[in-house]
């Protein structure tokens, strides 16, 4: 394992090389304008009446955007009577992560769009992204090699069909072509994407590149969402969208192995179905949204109860084709004022079979608030505060207590108690330079659900993010 300073140099040089390669492609990005300063979860713009074809190849045929996020993270030391192969280390140096992404969209025909996202990622998380179920850096993947790697993040086709003639303006954005967009539409997306691109959205708590860093705050913690190690899958998504309601359903692939990099293309043996209903409303003239999510994953998962009964507690020896994991998630957000909003999530899965893709959480509840900096004359800044409690099923607890471990936690023993996490971040925005700098603080109690290793663990981070 290289030392900290050389890894930092490798990551930064990897990001610069990717930026230089993007510049050499001689594709001119859209001209930068003065960034808007909307409050969180701003109300949707009013539709306008259609006076021409809703969608044509003459309206912004190309969209090109770029992001780079660098996160340096460190945790305080703590004492523990014992540790296992997947425990959070009691003492370690800071860890650096980097992601660099190009977002390329091309309008093909009326309602048809192609999306391509090459991405570079590198670095490592604290303790190799192990030891905390609600891990502290959403930009860190569970990959041992810290060297930056170029790979294909997204490649998909999207077709939209307008259901009514009314239109609303849509701004050019990441993987989104600007122009007039139908208010009521049906859409089909097929290819490689992230399930989190379309499901479990939340205006205040979803993107670790600009919002909260913790895994159990960027998504419903108990949603074992279908993805390879880097967070992407292959499949198809059908959407029915109106201003008040949206219904989304997807069928996608899952990894060949738990936390595996390769997806299982034997669809009859392994797949995932996700369904979500979204309802948007106004309360006291302030917008709010509620999302109800359900999921069912099918894969060759191991069984916690059977693994606990084995002398070696090897869950891989209990894997069997066709096992399922089912669960649900509820997400809500509500604007209180033009500068302040609240959010909450609650999620659950049955917890009988091993975690396959996301993280080892079977129950999770979170609550938080986000404010702009308008009161102190920094209207584009953001201040976020949140708390989250994570838990696991009885079968999962017994397995870890017997000495078993998954791909993210396992202390060799377990005196169970819920894992508690709080997080606060402040994002200093520099709109003129398309840059934000965000100090972040997290307090973790009982990492890995273990009362014998209570901490507290204090985690400090500094995030540098650029996007245009």
Percent of residues in beta strands? 35-45%
Rounded mean pLDDT is: 88
CATH superfamily: Carbohydrate-selective porin OprB
- How many domain units? 1
First-to-last CA distance: 34 Å
Which class of secondary structure composition applies to the elements? mainly beta
Strand order of the largest sheet: 1-2-3-4-7-8-9-10-11-12-13-14-15-16-17-18
Question: Helical segment tally?
Answer: 4
Number of strands: 18
- So, CATH architecture? Beta Barrel
Rough outline: globular
CATH topology descriptor? Porin
**CATH class annotation:** Mainly Beta
Could you describe the largest sheet, including whether it forms a barrel?
16 strands, antiparallel, barrel
Series of H and E elements:
HEEEEEEEHEEEEHEEEEHEEE
């Amino acid at each position: 394992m290289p030392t900290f300073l050389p890894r930092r140099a490798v990551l930064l040089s990897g990001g610069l090389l990717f930026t230089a390669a993007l510049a050499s492609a001689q594709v001119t990005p859209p001209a930068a304008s003065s960034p808007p300063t909307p409050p969180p979860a701003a109300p949707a713009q009013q539709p306008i009446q259609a006076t021409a074809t809703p969608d044509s190849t003459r309206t912004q045929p190309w969209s090109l955007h770029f992001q780079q996020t660098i996160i340096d993270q460190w945790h305080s030391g703590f004492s523990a009577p014992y540790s296992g192969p997947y425990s959070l280390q009691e003492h370690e140096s800071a860890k650096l992560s980097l992601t660099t992404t190009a977002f390329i969209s091309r309008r093909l025909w009326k309602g048809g769009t192609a999306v391509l996202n090459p991405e570079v990622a590198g670095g490592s998380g604290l303790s190799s992204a192990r030891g905390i179920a609600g891990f502290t850096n959403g930009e860190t993947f569970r990959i041992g090699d810290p060297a930056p790697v170029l790979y294909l993040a997204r490649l998909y086709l999207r077709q939209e069909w307008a259901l009514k003639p009314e239109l609303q303006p849509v701004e050019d954005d990441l993987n989104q072509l600007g122009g007039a967009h139908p208010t009521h539409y049906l859409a089909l997306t097929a290819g490689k994407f992230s399930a989190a691109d379309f499901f479990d959205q939340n205006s205040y708590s979803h993107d670790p590149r600009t919002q909260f860093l913790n895994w159990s705050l960027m998504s419903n913690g108990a949603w074992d969402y279908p993805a390879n190690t880097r967070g992407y899958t292959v499949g198809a998504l059908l959407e029915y969208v109106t201003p008040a309601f949206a219904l989304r359903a997807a069928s996608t692939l899952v990894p060949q192995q738990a936390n595996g990099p390769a997806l299982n293309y034997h669809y009859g043996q392994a797949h995932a179905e996700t369904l979500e209903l979204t309802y948007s409303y106004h309360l006291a003239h302030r917008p709010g949204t509620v999302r109800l999510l359900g999921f069912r994953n099918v894969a060759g998962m191991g069984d916690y109860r059977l693994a606990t009964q084995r002398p070696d507690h090897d869950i891989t020896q209990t894997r069997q084709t066709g096992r399922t994991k089912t669960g649900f998630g509820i997400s809500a957000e509500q604007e209180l004022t033009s500068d302040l909003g609240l959010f909450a999530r609650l999620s659950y899965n049955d917890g009988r079979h091993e975690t396959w893709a996301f993280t080892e959480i079977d129950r999770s509840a979170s609550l938080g608030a986000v404010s702009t900096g308008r009161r102190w004359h920094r209207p584009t800044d953001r201040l976020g505060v949140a708390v989250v409690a994570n838990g696991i099923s009885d079968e999962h607890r017994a397995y870890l207590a017997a000495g078993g471990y998954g791909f993210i936690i396992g202390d060799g023993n377990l005196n169970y108690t819920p894992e508690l996490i709080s997080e606060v971040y402040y994002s200093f925005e520099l709109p003129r330079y398309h840059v934000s700098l965000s100090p972040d603080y997290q307090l973790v109690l009982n990492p890995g659900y273990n009362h014998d290793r209570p901490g507290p663990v204090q985690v400090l981070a500094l995030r540098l993010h650029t996007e245009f």
